[in-house]
Fold each of these.
Amino acid sequence: MPLKISQDVREKLDQRHKVTEDEIIECFANRTGKYLDELRQQHQTNPNTLWFVSETDHARKLKVVFIQHPDGVIEIKSTFPPNQTELNIYTRHGY
């Protein structure tokens, strides 16, 4: 699974959310639910922005926001600990 993470996103992941690329890979590997489409207008992209909630190998729960390009590249937009609303949405619609 080829990941693409821009330098700006890497800095945000490191400085603001303290998330590593390894944790993102672990979340993809540990995912049990499905991908949800980002429906908020300000976050829509082409191709669609998708997201899911999963845990790292150390049980850290993270929301992973990404774009899956037609060539198979996964572009990470953000990854961070989900809030309760996001957890509720994913529990209702992601499993």
Amino acid sequence: MSMRSFKLQKGFTIVELLIVIVVIGILATLVIVTFTGIQQKARNTKRNTDINAINSHLEAFYAQNGYYPTLAHMNDGTWRTTNMKGLDPAALKDPKGSAQTLVASPAANSYAYAVTDDANASCAADESTCSKYTLTATLEGGGTYVKQSN
């Protein structure tokens, strides 16, 4: 009778290690995708909040003056400080944008402000005829958020 010596198995097999690595990879992917979606939703919510804040200040300005400011005035920090007290300049900056200014037509990473007269023509030459405006935020994942004058 021969005696066989059995080694005690210590550690993990390569198959067990691969299974653990695959499971960790799947979990990491789920966390990253979920986190990215949550961040995108938070930025879109901030866009909506910013547009609503600007809208409120524009309507208050209109109630006092009978017209809406031009794009040039909205982008002039000194003018804004004097005429739109309480409007946080950060509200003019898209969460992924780089400047606290509005642009003339909708674009990614910035807010658009278009102001016209009753005939939907430019009122830049005579601000007192500015009677309509449209504020637009381009949302991540597609779509826009739009606020118009009352």
Amino acid sequence: MFKNKHEDGTYNRCGKRIAAMRKQISPKMSQRGLAEELQRRGLDLDKNAIQRIESGERFITDIELAAFAKFFGVTADELLFGAE
């Protein structure tokens, strides 16, 4: 039976990359800070949603993926597959 999970058992491919990019921001940005910044840009996510996305416990929509990519200044493909 097909399951909507990545091969590592997570519900998204990009959560780990989002976490890594967030942690590289200077000055340091918390999950709450990222959620607040995305809210200012029109994306309705809270700190708990960010935590669940980063840990792979939550699916990410295409709209959210595009917002993360724009915020970090990368392409959606870079979030999904890494810089190849």
Amino acid sequence: MSNNPINLGLRFVLELAMLAALAYWGWTMHEGLTQVLLVIALPLAAATLWGVFRVDNDPKKAPVRIPGVLRLLLELALFVMAVALLAQAGQPTLALIFGVIVLIHYVISYDRIQWLLQQP
């Protein structure tokens, strides 16, 4: 089910929403140079972690290969951070909706989770 085109599209949208949530927190919770730096640095750091530390064949060769369980924890940590920062930035309803959609996505992607947990 995790390779269904609709689910892959949802996953991509969730990844973009996570990056947007990090930027939103930086923009709304800070001012001045710190604000600008966080709007750029937080999403950039998250995207770098997401893209560099991967399991081979998910969906291609990993630039830096990590165990599947560590990849799963990295993904969950970034999504949980996005939910928490949205709530802290005064968007608790949006944070809840985003968190529920992420949870639904992972339930639907149970086969990918099983695959990740089996990767050394």
